[in-house]
Amino acid sequence: MNAAYTLPDERGHFGDFGGRYVPETLMQAILELEEEYKKAQADESFQKELQALLTDYVGRETPLYFAENLTKYAGGAKVYLKREDLNHTGAHKINNSLGQALLALRMGKRKIVAETGAGQHGVATATACALLNLECIIFMGEEDIRRQQLNVFRMELLGAKVVGVQSGSATLKDAVNEALRYWVTNVEDTHYILGSVMGPHPFPMIVRDFQSVIGNETKKQYLEKEGKLPNAVVACIGGGSNSMGMFYPFIKDETVRMVGVEAAGLGTDTNKHAASLTKGTPGVLHGALMYLLQDEHGQIQEAHSISAGLDYPGVGPEHSYLKDSGRAEYESITDDEALDALKLLCKLEGIIPALESSHAVAYALKLAPQMKKDEGLVICLSGRGDKDVETVRARLGGKGQ
Amino acid sequence: MNRVEKVFQSLKQNREKAFVPYIMAGDGGLETLAEKITFLEKAGATAIEIGIPFSDPVADGPVIQQAGIRALEAGTTLRGVLAKIAEIRPIVHIPLIFMTYMNPLMAYGIGNFISDASKSGVDGLILPDLPAEEEEIIAPIAERAGIEIIRLVTLTSPLERIQAIANKGKGFLYAVTVNGITGARKEFKEELGKHLEKVKDVSSIPVLAGFGISEPQHVKEMNQHCDGVIVGSKIIELFQSGELAKIEELIASSKIEEIKM
Fold it and tell me: ipTM of this complex > 0.90?
């Protein structure tokens, strides 16, 4: 299977997953996007422009850092960190936002709408829009606005309009609903910069491709440092963009284990988690068929995670496919485990990771000791934790020690 | 012949326009469904669109979203609505068309749903998150069971696409009148009349206009360019406020134009 991996197919399906389950009003826009994306891929000047921005503006490539102290602590495989937290705006999200903003310009659309959960995608999109002089409106759940006030202010400083969403659980899922409704209404002059590998085709493919810079760099850097491929790559999953970007370049390298880490919240045996692949069932939401947290009647359930960026009841269609095909493994980490990993990385390596990325760190700490010392694993450190310091402080009762 | 086809054949013969009101099943409790349906039939509705609540209705505006939330809070399920329809069906003569999203149907099981819907006497299905590209998943099974898929065309659909879509069904074509979600509008784009006429030109089945229509004046305007209207949010509001006479007035406004002609 893997040698011939060419998904999605021409209809945007990954096996049974994916597709284009959107209102007819949006069909023209997503067909046009697909067409324009194909042209952009073949257009050297587009690729050069994006590459130049990634290098000089984002600060790529990001380091692949050998975390020696963490390796000693875990007592097994060598642990490397892919430092996406060092990107401009502090997370991997900018890789996709810039790419899609350039696509919007190619399509002659100067207005952008986006959703955001933790605010990282919102900040990245607001940044790209400021740089390229695009109008920007961001939908964000009221609950997330409360958790991520600093990011709201950042987006506003960057010139974006942030609109609070009160419906449903007032988190990422509801922000996507509202962004889709806004897009249906303003589709003629507006591009929707979806922030994860979800939504209708071609979004899961486009976001994956723009994020694949993570895995491509990792592969090259690891080869330079170790002369071989890593034995495992580990990344956290909300919608699944940083993990898909890390996994995709390794899909055909069957010796490389790909491990996605979902948020188990208060535990996967409670109803307060966001482990869509571990506990969910396939269904249609936000334009794609994918694994979802839903009740027996097909009503979407509210997800929970301490990390706003993982607080989503679905997971991208390609991850859904990779789970069923067995090519990738999916695990989950609780709020408490993620917090412990965050504290540990601060103390051992002097790096404050985002709560999202802390889930990947926590699972890597379980995986590394089961591996041999001459093996290696790479954690995608998808974002920095500055935005979470307030949440963590509240949770730890103000005690940093 | 399916009830939808039959009713439109008779409208055509009598040179009448269609009026299809939308209600949310379970809004106000499932026990009120029968009384709403019989009221609307008596008031002159051509067919009734029955919303099945879904937690994340991306094509719907605030009024239908709220109605859906009320229905879900009242414990409404697709299974429950199907049982209720089976109970009401013997006393209702007009077509009953479900409008919902794909996920509740997938959770039920598409094959099981079509079979149970057919037994209950459901005549059609409107699925706003199912464009032509994905309809293979349900359309062939539905149509074999005699349930019409009512397809949507919009202001952004190119003419060839409208034509391709219009040649698929035997029921009617749902022409969306705005770029946007459901909910009352004060006015429509000036070119809307022309758009509707273009749609009618290429369609072999009747064309009904929907989204945003809320006043008798809108109904009359739309009816000059197409075969009838669908009214949702306004009907829900009027049921909420108990203004049943206004519902009758809206439905009657689709008849008046014919008398003049």
Answer: yes
